[in-house]
């Protein structure tokens, strides 16, 4: 907003009060309009948000007796035809020069009666503080909500197949007692330090400036006149809620999932923060996990391993599959059941990796012992460890 536009803007009309309104009448009008148009009470209503900004801007001036007096004097001089550039019989000067741009006595500088008389260092000194608050900085921008991190524990089956789980969270949200305004009466005031932006600039050297959150309003852009007892003027309070969260299929133990916009609600129509969920997965008594593949160890008898045959293998959440063991299958061999593993991101499945373990019986009856002794006699002279010691010695 230019200086000229700021001078010609009718703040009395914005608040709907006469020019001779008392401080109490101005405050009452502001509270009523601020409550009606506050962004937290009109989510998604751009016109209400703009109206709230205009009302706050008007009260920032008229609610301060000194600023109001300076504003009235500026309006009397410039808002009603006085000292307008190019007017007949008027001084020819630039408003930008008057408020700090021109040099005394130089081109475009007011030098006639009334230009500086009675105002010491000039009109720029009188109105400088007021006009510095009349720009775009008074527009309190929407503020993004905070990110939240939570944890959830799933069973092995839920992690593989995906699950929807209830998640109870505590986060910062708009205080219900004051509707997020921070003010007991719902009528906060625009912060005079940052002029509603929530940020202040400081010199960084080399012609650069750095921006920091405003310490007076803690980055909100608003200051409570009568702080809410619940949130102590912050406009935010702890809120607990339970939401249903969908955990995708194939999630890993320790994986951190990001859910956009599901964190703490924003302020003044701003977007919500993000929710980060850290997933913990319980062990399964039978199955294991290796990337997109599931693993299982299946015991077989010595005759099955030596002679070959068919064995049934369980799958996770589905019917068993049949695998064919070739004769002479050694213990520790891994076989693959395709498409019986974990769900991938593209919807396909990994494999089930089946490790064969030859089961050695602890107790043998006479018949089984006799059969094994006959087998040992039949293969007498065969040594599976042939060459092992030579290889160990590097020969």
Q: What features would you highlight for this structure?
A:
395 residues, alpha+beta, Helix Hairpins, HSP40/DNAj peptide-binding domain, 4-stranded mixed β-sheet, 3-stranded mixed β-sheet, rod-shaped
Textual characterization of the structure:
- A hairpin with a 2-residue loop joins strand 12 and strand 13.
- This protein has helices at 3-8, 11-15, 23-37, 46-62, 65-79, 95-101, 123-131, 156-161, 302-307, 366-378, 388-392; strands spanning 148-154, 163-174, 189-190, 199-205, 208-213, 222-223, 236-247, 256-259, 275-281, 288-290, 293-300, 309-315, 318-325, 334-337, 352-358.
- Helix content is 26%, strand content 24%.
- It is α+β, with helices and mostly antiparallel strands and 395 residues long.
- The protein is rod-shaped.
- The chain contains 11 helices and 15 strands.
- It folds into 3 domains: 3-138, Helix Hairpins (Orthogonal Bundle), CATH 1.10.287.110; 141-177 and 236-283, HSP40/DNAj peptide-binding domain, CATH 2.60.260.20; 288-378, HSP40/DNAj peptide-binding domain (Sandwich).
- The relative contact order is 0.10.
- The protein has a 4-stranded mixed beta sheet. Strands 1-9-8 form a 3-stranded mixed beta sheet. Strands 2-7 form a two-stranded antiparallel ribbon.
- Mean pLDDT is 78; it is low at 80-139.
- It starts with a helix and ends with a helix.
């Amino acid at each position: 907003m230019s200086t000229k536009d700021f001078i010609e803007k009718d703040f009395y009309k914005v608040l709907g009060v006469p020019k001779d309104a008392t401080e109490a009448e101005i405050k009452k009008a502001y509270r009523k309009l601020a409550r009606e148009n506050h962004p937290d009470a009109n989510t998604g209503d751009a016109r209400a948000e703009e109206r709230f900004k205009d009302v706050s801007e008007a009260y920032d001036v008229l609610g301060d007796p000194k600023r109001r007096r300076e504003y009235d004097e500026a309006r009397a001089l410039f808002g009603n035809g006085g000292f307008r550039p190019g007017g007949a019989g008027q001084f020819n000067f630039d408003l930008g020069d008057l408020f700090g741009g021109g040099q005394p006595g130089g081109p475009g500088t007011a030098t006639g009666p009334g230009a500086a008389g009675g105002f010491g260092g000039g009109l720029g000194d009188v109105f400088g503080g007021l006009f510095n608050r009349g720009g775009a900085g008074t527009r309190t921008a929407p503020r993004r909500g905070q990110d939240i991190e939570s944890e959830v524990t799933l069973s092995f089956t839920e992690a593989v197949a995906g699950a929807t789980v209830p998640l109870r969270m505590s986060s910062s949200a708009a205080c219900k007692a004051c509707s997020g305004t921070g003010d007991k009466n719902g009528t906060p005031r625009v912060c005079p330090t940052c002029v509603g932006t929530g940020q202040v600039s400081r010199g960084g050297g080399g012609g650069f400036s750095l921006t920091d959150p405003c310490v007076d309003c803690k980055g909100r852009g608003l200051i409570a006149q009568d702080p809410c007892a619940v949130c102590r003027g912050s406009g935010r309070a702890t809120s607990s809620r339970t939401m249903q969260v969908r955990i995708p299929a194939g999630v890993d133990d320790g994986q951190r999932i990001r859910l956009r916009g599901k964190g703490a609600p924003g302020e003044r129509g701003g977007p919500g923060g993000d929710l980060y969920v850290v997933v913990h997965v319980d062990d399964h008594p039978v199955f294991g996990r290796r990337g997109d593949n599931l693993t299982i160890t299946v015991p077989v008898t010595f005759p099955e391993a030596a002679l070959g045959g068919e064995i049934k293998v369980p799958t996770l959440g589905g019917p068993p599959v049949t695998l064919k063991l070739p004769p002479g299958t050694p213990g520790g061999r891994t076989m693959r059941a395709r498409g019986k593993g974990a769900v991938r991101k593209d919807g396909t499945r990994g494999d089930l990796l089946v490790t064969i373990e030859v089961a050695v019986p602890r107790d043998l009856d006479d018949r089984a012992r006799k059969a094994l002794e006959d087998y040992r006699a039949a293969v007498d002279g065969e040594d599976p460890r042939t060459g092992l010691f030579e290889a160990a010695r590097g020969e």
